What we know:
This is Alpha-farnesene synthase-like. Keywords: Lyase, Magnesium, Metal-binding. Its cofactor is Mg(2+). GO terms for molecular function: magnesium ion binding; terpene synthase activity. The chain is mostly helical and about 575 residues long. It contains 24 helices and no strands. It has helices at about 5, 40-45, 55-75, 75-90, 95-110, 120-135, 160-170, 180-190, 200-210, 220-230, 240-270, 285-295, 300-325, 325-340, 350-370, 375-400, 410-420, 420-430, 445, 450-475, 480-490, 490-510, 520-540, 550-560. It is globular, with a radius of gyration of 25 Å. About 40% of the residues are buried.
Amino acid sequence: MEYKQQVQVEQNSLQCQNNSEDTDTRQERRSANYKPNIWKYDFLQSLSSKYDEEQYRRVTEKLREEVKSIFVEAVDLLAKLKLVDSVIKLGLGSYFEEEIKQSLDIIAASFKNQNPNVEENLYVTALRFKLLRLHGYEVSQGVFNGFFDGTFDRSKCTDVRGLIELFEASHLAYEGEATLEDAKAFSARILSGINCSAIESDLAKHVVHVLELPSHWRVLWFDVKWHINTYENDKQTNRHLLALAKVNFNTVQATLQKDLRDVSRWWRNLGIIENLSFTRDRLVESFLCTVGLVFEPKYSSFRKWLTKVIIMILIIDDVYDVYGSLHELQQFTKGVSRWDTGEVQELPECMKICFQALYDITNEMALEMRREKYGSKALPHLKKVWAEFCKAMFMEARWFNEGYTPSLQEYLSNAWVSSSGTVISVHSFFSLMTELETEEISNFLEKNQDLVYNISLIIRLCNDLGTSVAEQERGDAASSVVCYMREENISEEVARNHINNLIKKTWKKINGHCFTKSTTLQLLVNINTNMARVVHNLYQHGDGFGVQDRHENKKQILTLLVEPFKLDLPEFSF
């Protein structure tokens, strides 16, 4: 529906002034002073690529055959480990699922047949542990006992690559795995103390990269280009593997550009943002979040739907945080809970526009699913998560209006819902039902409530760490950082350290649910877990949604969505 045609707005309603005479309506609306969108429509429509997936299909198939032969040639344990690790880091895992499974079965068996008299290698042990646990194989922290006797033996842990893998493996710990907790502290201390100028430059970059954020907390696709550049500098990298990674990156990027052009046309035709001066116009960042959830070309429809959902989350978040009075927000919340446009007719024009957009987008999404047999099941769930999200947002608005600062525990009992994790998870589930119609996933949401809860906590806590300073300066509602500062009467630094420790503990709980051998379940689990990874990426250097022109944010968007690799392909005869 095109709101440009639907909504007749008077001149002064562009600022969304409320003409009602309710006593609690503020005379001046608050402002977060968000800057205008920097990614213009004409620029997004100009994005194009010659690396069409169909056009490069024959080259891709030929390169895949060449890489399959490398799996055959990789006979010894170390060769298999390095190959599987490389294929995954280069974003090629979906091309070689069977080969990876066969290799991991052999690698897992090597644990059982290991000669106890052979001295262990830290790099091999840690890499093997990491790959097996990531893919749902049972593997104990006890595999590190050869390096650990109450404390890790520094004399057995001198290899920098081994220490990197030990650090990576330690982030896959479950609750109660004390050895892995010690491994994390030990490897972090040693790696942080390395004089990077004294080791080879690529290895030094790897040390810095992993200490900045472990790979388990990173979005795989956001890191692929970094790994391709790193492998390109390694003379031992197979040229066919590297060529396939570059072709795959370029063809995926071409699909993402088309997706982005499509959603940017939808966003312009929707025509609501010019009437919402208080909110963030962040189409590209919203789309990038969906790429972080799932990047493969065949999930274009998923990305387009979820982009619309994330845009609405941002707008509604700003309605509650910035624009609405408490009375207006109560009415808006009631309208969403009852899914009734009649409940919002007395609200300011811009709030009616927001509600109508949410109403139409959600109903349209359910209608599309109905054509695929799931609409009747989806709509009640979609309406429910939006209602719960708005109720949680209203609770925060009420606390702010009353000048009340909750305890951290009380704050988080509400904030995990206001984080929007459940909204994204439920929409993701029903968006994928047409792809994954199996009995195995029919009760996924019910069985994985703890996973979604803990991921939602990560979303909230990372968001708070990235935005707390700016929110305090604006006088916004208290974040988890501020709640804990006031509850314990401590400094901001101590409070932020506590929140970081909560994030680490929560990841251990997520680890208890996110590793499985089932490829069908793994897609859904990965998409949910990727929500946590996306927010680490978004808020690593500050407010990734509010501040568009930060160097790191712009560079990442250009790297992933604009700049392809220059290809120097091996010659093939077809």
